[in-house]
Amino acid sequence: MGCDTIVDSQTGGGSTTSFANFNSTEWIATKFVASETATICQIEFWMQVNTGSPAQNPTARIYSHDSGNDEPDVIIGTASDTLDLTGMGTGYQTFVNVSASIVASTTYWLMIEAEGEFDGSHYASITYETSINSTHGVMRDDDGLGTWAEVSATGQIKFRIYKDSGAVGALLKLIQSKRRFEPAIFQ
Fold first, then answer.
1. E-assigned strand segments in the chain
2. Quick one: which of 86, 88, 163, 174 has the most CB atoms within 10 Å?
3. How many other C-beta atoms are found inside a 10 Å radius of the C-beta of residue 64?
């Protein structure tokens, strides 16, 4: 068992937006539509450190969707840990111990939030695809006050979210990984 089954993802990239370099509070969010009903246990974002060692330690959250303003609304789940950006390489950065229930065909926002000291010269970046479709979007809030600015109306951050497959899922994976032997039928 474990948090090992991808529920939704966006694996393309091509553009980046800087992160953890403007203010002591910074939020970057991407919209997605849940492909299934599940309880999310892990969030991953494709990130890299651009310059130096940013002092901020971001966390990840899932928000409901405010359809009237087309922006994040209410927190429905938060990772219990933060990410140390010091010495971070390029790749998926993992936020664990999330517990957020999502419902199939419902719009949500994945958000990475950084708070703490910043100096403007040490920062990270997040990768996103610029043109997925009009139901997606990448937004940023550089003051943590809900003042959202559009990064890409049709883009989506490169992410993966996971659920725990549970005992049944683990057993099915084990069975699928083993070669099946089917005895011949005797005549």
1. 3-10, 15-19, 25-33, 38-51, 59-66, 71-78, 91-102, 107-115, 123-129, 138-141, 149-152, 156-157, 159-164
2. 163
3. 16
pLDDT for res 144: 73
Total Cβ atoms within 10 A of residue 18: 15
pTM, to two decimals: 0.79
pLDDT in tens, 89-144: 788 888 899 999 999 999 999 998 877 666 666 677 777 777 666 566 788 887 77
Task: Give the pair of three-digit tokens for residue 86.
Answer: 């010091």
Structural tokens at position 2: 């474990």
- What domains lie within the chain, and their CATH numbers? 3-177 (2.60.120)
Distance CA 94, CA 70 (A): 26
Which tokens hold the place of 102?
């999502």
What does each C-alpha distance from 104 to 36, 37, 138 come to in angstroms?
4, 5, 21
CB 102 within 8 A of CB 62: yes
Residue (of 21, 69, 39) closest to 166 by Cα position: 39
